[in-house]
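thought: fold this chain, then report.
action: predict
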Amino acid sequence: MSLLQISDPSSGPRPIGIDLGTTNSVVAYVSSLGEPLAISDCDGVVLVPSVVHYAEDRTIAVGPRAKALALDHPEDTIVSVKRFMGRGADDPETRRMGPYRFATSEGPVVRFRVAGRGEVTPVEVSAEILRELKDRAEDELGQVGGAVITVPAYFDDAQRQATKDAARLAGLEVLRLLNEPTAAALAYGLDKKTNGTFAVYDLGGGTFDVTILVLDDGVFQVKSTGGDSQLGGDDMDRALASRILTALGLEGTSSPSFTRYALDAARAIKHALTDHETVTTDLSHEGRTASFTVARDDFDALIQPLLQRTGVACRRALRDAGVEASALDGVILVGGSTRVPAVRRYVAQLFGRAPLTDLDPDLVVAMGAALQADMLAGAGSSKNDVLLLDVLPLSLGLEAMGGVVERILPRNTPIPAAAAQVFTTYADQQTGFELHVVQGERELAADCRSLARFTLRGIPPMAAGLARLEVRFDVDADGILHVTAKERTTGLEQKVDVTPSYGLDDATIEKMLEDAYEAGESDIEKRSLAEQRVEAERVILATEKALSEDGDLVSAEERASIELATRRLREAHAGTKHRVIAARIEELEHATHEFAGRRMDRAIRGALAGRDLVSVEETTRDARGIEHAHDPLGPSAPADSTEVE
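observation:
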């Protein structure tokens, strides 16, 4: 029998941890004894269904009440809203989930059309769930302080920012966003007092994460992370629901009501198959009836492709961490979907060991969040003092000239983190920089996820290559990116808050990584081609400018040679062979070598006219420095810079 606790009104606000889940959510806190406890309702139920219902009279139901209304009001009851967070209205994944009335088919934000409210966004729906959890915590604890809210490790910048926005709408102070696998490992490590290298396999209702981390005397260091933000138990339900609809004679099409009925029935059957080899259900809805029987073996075969997708991410995470599966000290299961027997068998086969199942996979994330909240609020006991070292799930960078990606912060960089890169102008008299922030592992920006676009204006007009723009990326402890741009030669500085475009250009992150590995060699070829084309354009432009300004320094024969080399470079530029372009660039530079020397001599003589000996020495020294730093025909990017438009 557990001891009851009475909160002290004078003790001040209590920090809480929240697992904002796809199917269910949980709120927890750390007791005066230093133990994490999940908060239950008056019936002793801990899990809050992540469901919100909007009624005609403008009332809102959350949790069990909303779940009970979903079947009769499928379009006004939002289920699994987490899968919509940070996604665009025109995202194919958005249309796959339902049944809902979408207010628009385009735009960066999903909008649901619901009764009594007109339109609501996923952020607003999530805020209702968080508000319900906050109310539950206040009933238990009195005053509630800050909150640590967990997110999938593979949530990108837009999805993390959307989660923070939802928390603010709910009236919560976000102490930190914490990756779900890291939270689970925190709870497990402190509960079991265990050191070693562990894999956290987190399969929830709508997301999958895998994290490899080391627990070492209070230091939790994430070595690598992977996963799929659009893979979970909901996909198992959909696979089974399609068979249920077929059994009801609705193959290929169904009403929102039938879709919701089939999804609910599929979830109930999935749960029953955990304890039974065969489940028979009498289906009956809106005049249609059928008897539906499913064997566990059939269900296992149905979900096998989903499990194999998790295996790809797991093997990649092990490779990124430089760890063999045999070297792991354990595999921690997180998420309600890991209760499916086929999942546990697959994990045991994948890692070569039985997973650890002694902590409740539905509660362990919220408990870890509560422990972290307790520590951040300064209330943690010395026995729970830990250091969390998390990593970036995907690389962050800028689009450079030619559409290539200049990575500023690589994948699996420990966070918080910061890095800077210096860029320069490509064209003469350029007064602005167009900056495109991207996330992903591909070599070309078009193949990565677009996070933000903005323009830094007000740069004084200069010759190409003279401006120096330092772009700094800062990723905070929540995994959210902040960008600062500063023009070095003038001191002009602008801090840019990267406001995420919730869901532009949105293939799943797992697909992005798969593409990056599969297309690695071809991507490098494309990047090399783009870079050589940019260099070719620069050299041609410099050559034409030099001939225009100092054409009297070349003979007719020499001009013909330069023009021939220029023409051959243009032809190569139009082709697809980067090595040919590089060879033609070298050919043109050879043709202009003597001309460049004569231009340098003329420039020095002009600069020395009427100068004394000291000035001569300084000018000569400067000229030699320029000769080393720049192409003789014109300025170019310095060695530590990458050209951007």
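thought: worth noting. The chain is about 40% helix and 25% strand.
final: tokens above.
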